[in-house]
Amino acid sequence: MRNLKLILTTLSSLSFRKILKLLGLILPHPLFSLLGLYATLRSFALAQKHFPKSHSNNGVGNAFRHALWTCLIMMYCCKISSPKKAQNYCKRMTDLHEELFPNKPLEKKMDLHNNQVGMDYFMELLPGIHRQFFETSFFVEEFLNKTKSARLLKNLDDDFDGNLVYLTP
Hints:
Pfam families: DUF6973. By secondary structure, the chain is mainly α.
């Protein structure tokens, strides 16, 4: 309930132009949008459970949350559509999030990188598991492990392919 209140408060801060951009994502894909919202709430709750102090700042908990978020969006959307459509929607949704709620360049790079790590991991698992049988636990354990080897992002040129990245210890 607290996370839903946070989302509603955040949405109320958007300008009219940003609301139109958000509607441009939601209206053509209402089911994906509901599933994306559910994935957002689940990823917040799980990040809060595992990383109560770092999921809302730029620490490893935030990296975990972003990677998990994209996997959950793709998992839920794949249950009603193709993996490619789910991936396209996930990318649009998560990129739009960065546009609607802009960060400093290094924070944006971190978020986009961790989002991509999550999408890549989902696509890596896809050939071995029928998309209807994916479960949240598949991703939580993997990303908890990945936080142990997460890398500190120091500048925009850093490239830590496949690793989660964070800005503050």
